[in-house]
Amino acid sequence: MKPIWSVLLVVVTMFAQALAGSLPASLLLGRDNVLRQPLGALGITVAGLLFVYLIRRFLDRRPWSALGWHKPSGILLGVVAGLVPVLVAGVLSLAAGAATRMPMDASALAWLPLAALVLLLNQAFPEELLWRGHLVDTLSARLSMRTVVIVSSVVFGAMHIISQSAAVTVLEKVLYVVMAVALGFACTAARVRGGGLWMAVGVHWGFHIGLRLLPLQPVNFGVQLVLMTVTLTLAGAVLLKGHRTKSEQPIETRSSQPLG
Fold first, then answer.
1. Would you say residue 24 lies in a domain?
2. Is this model's pTM higher than 0.85 or not?
3. Count of structural domains within the chain
4. Does the residue 58 lie in any domain?
5. Confidence of residue 257 (pLDDT cuts 50, 70, 90)
6. 33-67 pLDDT, tens per residue?
7. Burial class (CB in 10 A: 0-12, 13-18, 19+), 55
8. Which one of 73, 139, 153, 251 has the fewest beta carbons within 10 angstroms of its own beta carbon?
């Protein structure tokens, strides 16, 4: 499949897995049911695994192992690489007066582990499986790694133009997309550096955990976004620093053997 079609298919699949995965829980469970969010998130992960398997089995003919399942411990380093930029940007935002800290009561802290699990299942894992797992592998068979990093980061960020956020003005919405591109860059850098999917999942997961560990009320959301863009970009650059050449890359994307 040509790279442009691979990218478009990933964009469509991202919406499809979110809708198909969350729909059963939404239809069967009431809004106040405590299981609705966790089961909806689990459904998105299951749908993501199914869709990626079908795409790779019948369209791209790429081996499942090339998604990069080795070194699951890499998720821990990824969480740190995603968490630290958010916390640093948050502290700088507070210091600059661009945000105020929202109070977090004991009940919110008690629910944090469940919230983290939901974030892993409904965003971090299924989205990274699609973007940094499937798409990076597919594009790497035809494009240079530099091009793959750019495409994976920019298109992922552009998808966030329709995301809900605190952005109100046109400038803030543009900055929000730019920040999402920086997140995509950090995740792709983790995929390149770690040679597998798990570190990228960790970066995405750590980003969202950081937003909940340090909840902020925007005063100047644009400044917050700029600071997060800078810290995430720096994190991605650190992850890429000293990575090996294309022929030596640890990413398992060079195999052209079709699925059996």
1. no
2. yes
3. 1
4. no
5. very low
6. 999 999 999 999 999 999 999 999 999 999 999 99
7. buried
8. 73
